[in-house]
Amino acid sequence: QVQLVESGGGEVEPGGSLTLSCKAYGSIFATYSMGWYRQAPGKPREMVAYKDGLEPPTYADSVKGRFTLSRDTDKTTMYLHMSSLQPEDTALYYCKLYFYWGQGTQVTVSS
């Protein structure tokens, strides 16, 4: 069993930055696929950033150049570094490791 605990969400002004963290507890493998997804009110959940094994990360077009997916060397924590945030980035953000999901952390971009 794997548990994912997210943190780092909050409210930020347009143009600001946030870094989300996702800590994994339990038995995990370094080659597990990982990713970040988000869901805004009234919209379906969408992929934001995804990495499968040793492949380079894939990003949604809407966040390319602004968001970066990374992982700690111990492979138990992954991050989503977000910059130049815009109101349309407002959503509940979820991390995913293999088929395990985090509980979600809210990101609100507002002036």
Topology:
Elements: E1 2-7, E2 10-12, E3 18-26, E4 34-39, E5 46-51, E6 58-59, E7 67-71, E8 77-82, E9 91-97, E10 100-101, E11 105-109
Parallel strand pairs: 2-11
Antiparallel strand pairs: 1-3, 3-8, 4-5, 4-9, 5-6, 7-8, 9-10, 9-11
Distance between the termini: 40 Å
- According to DSSP, the number of beta strands is 11
Q: Which regions contain 5 or more consecutive residues with pLDDT less than 50?
A: none
How many DSSP H or I helices? Answer: 0
Largest β sheet strand count, sense and barrel closure: 7 strands, mixed
Q: What is the C-alpha radius of gyration, as a whole number of Å? A: 13 Å
What coarse outline follows from CA principal-axis ratios? globular
Strand-pairing-aware structural class? mainly beta
Average pLDDT level: 94
Strand content: over 45%
Following the backbone from N to C, one meets helices and strands in this order, namely EEEEEEEEEEE
Helix content: under 10%
Task: Give descriptors for this structure.
7-stranded mixed β-sheet, 111 residues, 0% helix, 4-stranded antiparallel β-sheet, mainly beta
Write a structural description:
The chain has 111 residues and is mainly β. Helices cover 0% and strands 51% of the residues. The chain has no helices and eleven strands. Strand 9 (91-97) and strand 10 form a beta hairpin. It is globular and about 40 Å long.
Describe, in short, the structure shown.
The chain is mainly beta and 111 residues long. It has no helices and 11 strands.
